[in-house]
Predict the structure.
Amino acid sequence: MEEKRTYMRIPTRLRGHLRLVPNADEMPLYRETPPMGSTPCAVDPRDPGISEPLFSLLCTINSKLDMLLAMQDRDVLETDFPVTMDITEISGAGVRFSTTEELSLEQPVEAVIVLARFPMRLAGAMGRIIRREEIDGQVVYALDFTRIRERDLESIVQFVFQSQRDDLRGKKWD
């Protein structure tokens, strides 16, 4: 059977988190948040009386608060999504991963993928386990995304393109 791909799949080393859901119609628990540092500073530098150094200080404090909130969110994420994933391949259609947990085929799940740690970039999707294989003594699962928000899909596709671009630039110097 010939497989048709809509998205490019690349090898990777990412972490993710997973939770088992009772059925495929379950509402997603993960809600995206803006990437750290992307929230604009609440102070307008054109306001009279605000010096450039003060504006810079306030923006620095704002980004550090974003970082602290992201760290707190990570702890909550690990509680809500108790199954840890070691992702070995990623595409806009799904991921291949290993985990210490035993998962059944066709199991509906919700996954959160950590695309970058600093600044924290996450992508979430609903999906189902479609394949289980044993590779070098390790169980590897294939997760097919069944529902994914447009912004999360775009983040994954951008990650794939950036990874390919970095690989090509690295090969240029080999």
Summary: Residues 8 and 81 are 27 Å apart (CA to CA). The mean pLDDT is 85. The chain is about 30% helix and 35% strand.
